[in-house]
């Protein structure tokens, strides 16, 4: 009886988080959308770029920000150098000598969040925007990003990250388009459950990072702001580009790093303090079950194996999972088998949730980070 409960429970949870919830969220967003008031405003903005040994890309990043279609007198660019030991500081100082909009903030090596927090404290703009050192914004990205702050209920706005290969060709895979579709639905319902580090902005009065230097902005800011009755929304017209990871294995390392930080609010009870019942359901459906998918898959595999001789349904389920693993292996071997690459990507993304959980339980949330190969 226990094995059957585990089988059907894990199968139902996986089906809900991957299929049922995205469809239900999209349908509900059409039935009861919460529009955001947008206006072409140009408030004072400080764009903060946290950087550690980014001499390869920091010049392009600063040049790109200086070329934005935004009033120069309302724009400040702060590069928070997190203990950089290469030529990052010298490159930024050269830009600062030519443009009063650019400023270098030297920080001791303490991690991305600490550098961001210090930069916020040492700036004064109404809106604080953040970007990665390897990002590239479209010229109108900042204008489009800040439009939603015309709505007084909005505290956080996340733009759209698009992925490209080294030659500039689009690398937007099926999985990433699937994630953006869910983000758009959640924003229409009220607030997103997570953003991205390439392009987002927060009202100074709503910034929460100084509460905890290990808070992950992508996941932590949206739900903590909703707990304070603020909205965290998605603006797909504010576009940033980044190079995709060189291969699936490098992407695996990036996911492990991000998810290790995300496990903290999943396990410390932070999520249940969300008073909005609908938003709490979104968090449980999209984040808790998704990050728990590695555990759920292990339970499903184990329970179906235990029940395989009892009923053909379980035997078929067990064989089907073995077939999926074989397909993923074909993807790892770069075989030209339909669906193999996607199966391998899904397997790695799922395994990353388990790897990240183990790392979090052993050492907690990491403060510092390493660059992903191929993304510079």
The CATH topology of the largest domain turns out to be Spore Coat Polysaccharide Biosynthesis Protein SpsA, Chain A
CATH superfamily of the largest domain: Spore Coat Polysaccharide Biosynthesis Protein SpsA, Chain A
Strand element count: 8
What is the CATH top level name of the largest domain? Alpha Beta
Which H/E pattern describes the elements? Answer: HEHEHEHEEHEHEHEHHHHH
The chain-level structural class is alpha/beta
Work out the helix count: 12
Strand percentage lies at: 5-15%
Integer count of domains: 2
The whole-number mean of residue pLDDT values reads 92
**Alpha-carbon Rg, integer:** 22 Å
Spatial strand sequence of the major β-sheet:
3-2-1-4-7-6-8-5
Report the span from N to C terminus.
52 Å
The low-confidence parts are: none
Shape: globular
- Measured as a percent range, the helix fraction is 40-55%
Q: Quickly give the CATH architecture of the largest domain.
A: Alpha-Beta Complex
Largest sheet: 8 strands, mixed
Draw up the topology in text.
Blueprint: H1 2-31, E1 45-51, H2 58-66, E2 75-82, H3 88-98, E3 102-107, H4 112-121, E4 127-131, E5 136-137, H5 141-146, E6 154-164, H6 174-189, E7 200-203, H7 217-227, E8 231-243, H8 248-267, H9 277-291, H10 293-307, H11 312-332, H12 340-363
Parallel strand pairs: 1-2, 1-4, 2-3, 6-8
Antiparallel strand pairs: 4-7, 5-8, 6-7
Helix pairs in contact: 1-6, 1-9, 1-10, 8-12, 10-11, 10-12, 11-12
What does this structure look like?
The chain is an alpha/beta fold and 376 residues long. It folds into 2 domains: 1-31 and 247-376, no CATH class; 45-244, Spore Coat Polysaccharide Biosynthesis Protein SpsA, Chain A. It has 12 helices and 8 strands. The protein has helices spanning 2-31, 58-66, 88-98, 112-121, 141-146, 174-189, 217-227, 248-267, 277-291, 293-307, 312-332, 340-363; strands at 45-51, 75-82, 102-107, 127-131, 136-137, 154-164, 200-203, 231-243. The longest helix has 30 residues, at 2-31. The N and C termini lie far apart (52 Å).
């Amino acid at each position: 009886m226990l094995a059957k409960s585990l089988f059907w429970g894990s199968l139902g949870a996986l089906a809900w988080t991957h299929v049922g919830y995205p469809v239900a969220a999209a349908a509900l967003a059409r039935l009861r959308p919460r529009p955001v008031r947008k206006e072409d405003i140009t408030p004072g903005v400080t764009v903060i770029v946290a950087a550690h040994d980014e001499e390869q890309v920091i010049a392009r990043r600063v040049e790109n920000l200086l070329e934005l279609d935004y009033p120069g007198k309302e724009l400040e660019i702060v590069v928070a150098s997190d203990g950089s030991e290469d030529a990052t500081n010298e490159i930024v100082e050269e830009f600062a000598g030519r443009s009063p909009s650019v400023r270098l903030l030297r920080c001791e090596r303490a991690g991305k969040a600490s550098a961001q927090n210090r930069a916020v404290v040492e700036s004064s703009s109404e809106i604080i925007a953040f970007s990665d050192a390897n990002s590239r914004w479209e010229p109108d990205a900042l204008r489009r990003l800040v439009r939603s702050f015309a709505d007084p209920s909005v505290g956080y706005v996340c733009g759209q990250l698009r992925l490209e290969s080294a030659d500039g060709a689009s690398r937007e895979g099926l999985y990433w388009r699937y994630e953006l579709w869910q983000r758009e639905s959640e924003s229409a319902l009220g607030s997103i459950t997570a953003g991205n580090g390439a392009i987002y902005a927060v009202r100074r009065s709503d910034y929460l990072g100084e509460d905890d230097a290990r808070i992950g902005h992508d996941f932590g800011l949206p739900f903590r702001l909703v707990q304070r009755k603020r909205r965290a929304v998605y603006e797909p017209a504010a576009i940033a580009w980044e190079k995709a990871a060189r291969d699936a294995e490098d992407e695996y390392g990036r996911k492990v790093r991000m998810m290790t930080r995300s496990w903290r609010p999943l396990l410390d009870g932070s999520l249940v303090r969300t008073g909005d019942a609908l938003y709490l359901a979104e968090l449980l459906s999209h984040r808790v079950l998704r990050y728990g998918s590695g555990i759920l898959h292990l339970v499903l595999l184990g329970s179906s194996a235990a029940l395989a001789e009892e009923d053909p349904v379980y035997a078929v389920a067990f064989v089907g999972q073995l077939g999926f693993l074989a397909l993923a292996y074909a993807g790892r071997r770069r075989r030209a088998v339909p669906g193999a690459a996607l199966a391998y990507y899904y397997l790695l993304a799922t395994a990353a949730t388990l790897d990240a959980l183990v790392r979090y339980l052993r050492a907690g949330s990491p403060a510092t980070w390493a660059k992903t190969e191929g993304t510079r």
